[in-house]
C-alpha cells in the first residue's frame, strides 16, 4: 500500500494543476452548452476529440510518466492526458476536479473469449488488424454463452480507494466508479464468429442468428439487473460514447448516487457490422432487440461507425434515443433531413484527413462547414466528434490544429 515520496509528489503536483483548470468558470459555461445541445435547444454546435493515438502525441515530455508504482502510473496517465488535451486540443472538453477509479468487479464475462489472429503495422499502436475464429458454428455451441455472475471485490476496491485518497491528498475528489453498460451484441458476435460468418448466416441461417442475438440480449439484461441490484452502476456521467453527456434530464427523480438505476443514466448501442444490411434486416435482427435495452435507460445514444442516414426512421422506434451517430460514410444531407430537430446529429468527421501524407486544414474546414450548413438547413442540433484516430503520422500538431479549426467553425 505504501507509495514513494517521489510518486506521491508527482501525482499531487499534476492533481493541483488539474484542480486549477477545473476551477475555471469556463468549465460551467461549457457544461451549460452541452446541456443545451442535449436538450435539443443548442446555443451552438459542440466539438470534441476522443480515441487519440497517444503513442504519437508526445512533445516536450508532457506525456512521459515519472511514477514507478503501477497504480500511480495509471492515475498519472489520466492526469497527464487531461492536461495535454487542455493545453493543445481542448475543443469543448470539460475538466472536473475528480479522479475516477473503477470499482473492482468480477464475473462480467459472457462465457466465450475472443480467438483471433492479428496483423500489426506499428508495434506502438494498439489499432491492429483482426481475423476472428468462429466459435459458434452450430446450435450445440449456444450454451457457451453464459450469464455473468457479478461480484464486487470489496477488499480490492477499498484498497484502491484508500491508496488513491492517500496519494492525491484531497487535491482532487476520488470517485469510485461503477459501470455504464453498453448494448452492442453484434460487435461481440462479429468477434466470436467473424463478420463474414455472421453476415452470411443472416441469409443462410436466420433462425440460428436470432437464437444467438436473443441469448446475448438475455445475458446483457442479466448483467444490467445484477449491476443495479448490487449498486454497481456508475453515476455522474461526463461522456456518452465520446460526446458530452451533461443534461438537466438525468438523473431521474428519486435518484441515489449509491444505488443508481438505469433510468438515471445514458446508455448507448450499436451494430457496426450492419453497415451493409438493409433497414428491414437491421430492424429485425437488431433494433427489435435493442428496444428492450434502451427502454430501461433515461437517455440513449445510438450508433457508431455504421452509416445510419437511411435508417433514422427505424431508429425512431427505439425508446429514449437522443443522439444518432452520423459516421464519415453517411450522406449528410439525407441524414440531416431525416433527423431534423428530433435528435442530436452526432457527426463523426473523417479521421482520414489526419492520416494522409499531406496535412490540409483547409479541407478539414470545408468539410466541417459543409456539415454545419446542411444541418442548419434542417434545424438539426449538431456535434462534431472526431474519434477513431489511428494515426496523425507522428505529427501531433495536426490534431491541435484540427481542434482550432473546429472551434472556429462552431463559433466557440
Lay out the secondary structure:
Elements: H1 5-22, H2 25-38, E1 46-49, H3 70-88, E2 98-102, E3 105-106, E4 116-119, E5 129-132, E6 151-152, H4 154-168, E7 173-177, H5 185-193, H6 195-204, H7 206-229, E8 239-240, E9 243-244, E10 266-269, H8 279-294, E11 299-302, H9 312-315, E12 321-326, H10 332-339, E13 344-347, H11 361-377, E14 382-386, H12 397-410
Helix pairs in contact: 1-3, 5-6, 6-7, 7-8, 10-11, 11-12
Q: How do the helices and strands follow one another from N- to C-terminus?
A: HHEHEEEEEHEHHHEEEHEHEHEHEH
Average residue pLDDT: 95
Based on secondary structure, the structural category is alpha/beta
> What is the tally of helical segments?
12
How many β-strand runs? 14
The CATH top-level class label: Alpha Beta
How would you describe the oligomerization state of the chains in this entry?
Answer: single chain
Describe the protein.
With 412 residues, the protein is an alpha/beta fold. It has a single domain, classed as TIM Barrel (Alpha-Beta Barrel). It contains twelve helices and 14 strands. It has helices at residues 5-22, 25-38, 70-88, 154-168, 185-193, 195-204, 206-229, 279-294, 312-315, 332-339, 361-377, 397-410; strands spanning 46-49, 98-102, 105-106, 116-119, 129-132, 151-152, 173-177, 239-240, 243-244, 266-269, 299-302, 321-326, 344-347, 382-386. The strands form five sheets. A six-stranded parallel β-sheet has the order 1-14-13-12-11-10, sandwiched between helices. The protein has a two-stranded parallel ribbon with strand order 2-7. The chain has a two-stranded antiparallel ribbon with strand order 3-6. A hairpin with a 2-residue loop joins strand 8 (239-240) and strand 9. The protein is globular and about 60 Å long.
Amino acid at each position: 500500500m505504501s507509495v514513494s515520496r517521489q510518486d506521491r509528489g508527482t501525482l499531487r503536483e499534476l492533481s493541483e494543476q488539474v484542480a486549477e483548470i477545473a476551477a475555471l468558470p469556463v468549465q460551467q459555461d461549457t457544461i451549460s452548452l452541452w446541456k443545451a445541445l442535449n436538450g435539443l435547444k443548442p446555443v451552438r454546435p459542440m466539438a470534441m476529440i476522443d480515441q487519440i493515438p497517444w503513442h504519437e502525441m508526445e512533445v516536450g515530455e508532457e506525456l512521459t510518466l515519472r511514477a514507478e508504482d503501477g497504480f500511480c502510473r495509471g492515475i498519472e496517465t489520466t492526469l497527464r492526458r487531461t492536461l495535454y488535451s487542455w493545453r493543445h486540443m481542448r475543443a469543448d472538453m470539460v475538466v472536473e476536479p475528480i479522479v475516477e477509479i473503477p470499482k473492482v468487479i468480477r464475473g462480467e464475462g459472457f462465457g466465450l473469449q475472443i480467438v483471433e489472429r492479428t496483423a500489426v503495422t506499428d508495434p506502438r499502436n494498439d489499432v491492429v488488424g483482426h481475423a476472428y475464429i468462429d466459435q459458434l458454428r452450430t446450435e450445440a455451441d449456444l450454451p457457451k454463452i453464459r450469464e455473468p455472475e457479478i461480484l464486487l471485490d470489496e477488499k480490492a476496491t477499498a484498497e484502491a480507494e484508500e491508496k488513491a485518497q492517500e496519494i492525491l491528498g484531497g487535491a482532487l475528489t476520488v470517485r469510485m466508479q461503477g459501470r455504464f453498460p453498453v448494448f452492442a451484441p453484434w460487435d461481440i458476435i462479429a468477434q466470436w464468429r467473424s463478420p463474414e460468418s455472421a453476415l452470411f448466416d443472416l441469409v443462410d441461417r436466420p433462425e440460428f442468428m436470432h437464437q444467438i442475438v436473443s441469448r446475448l440480449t438475455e445475458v446483457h439484461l442479466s448483467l444490467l439487473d445484477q449491476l443495479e441490484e448490487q449498486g454497481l452502476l456508475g453515476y455522474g456521467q461526463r461522456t456518452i460514447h465520446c460526446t458530452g453527456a451533461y443534461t438537466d434530464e438525468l438523473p431521474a427523480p428519486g435518484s441515489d448516487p449509491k444505488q443508481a438505476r438505469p433510468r438515471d443514466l445514458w446508455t448507448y448501442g450499436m451494430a457496426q457490422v450492419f453497415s451493409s444490411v438493409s433497414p428491414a434486416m437491421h430492424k429485425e435482427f437488431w433494433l427489435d432487440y435493442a428496444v428492450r435495452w434502451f427502454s430501461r435507460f433515461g437517455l440513449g445514444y445510438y450508433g457508431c461507425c455504421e452509416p445510419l442516414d437511411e435508417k433514422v426512421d427505424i431508429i425512431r422506434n427505439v425508446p429514449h434515443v437522443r443522439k444518432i451517430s452520423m459516421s464519415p460514410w453517411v450522406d449528410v444531407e439525407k441524414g440531416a433531413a431525416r433527423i431534423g430537430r428530433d435528435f442530436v446529429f452526432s457527426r463523426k468527421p473523417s479521421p482520414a484527413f489526419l492520416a494522409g501524407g499531406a496535412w490540409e486544414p483547409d479541407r478539414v474546414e470545408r468539410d466541417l462547414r459543409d456539415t454545419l450548413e446542411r444541418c442548419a438547413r434542417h434545424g438539426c442540433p449538431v456535434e462534431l466528434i472526431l474519434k477513431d484516430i489511428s494515426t496523425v503520422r507522428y505529427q501531433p500538431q495536426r490534431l491541435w490544429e484540427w481542434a482550432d479549426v473546429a472551434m472556429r467553425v462552431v463559433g466557440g
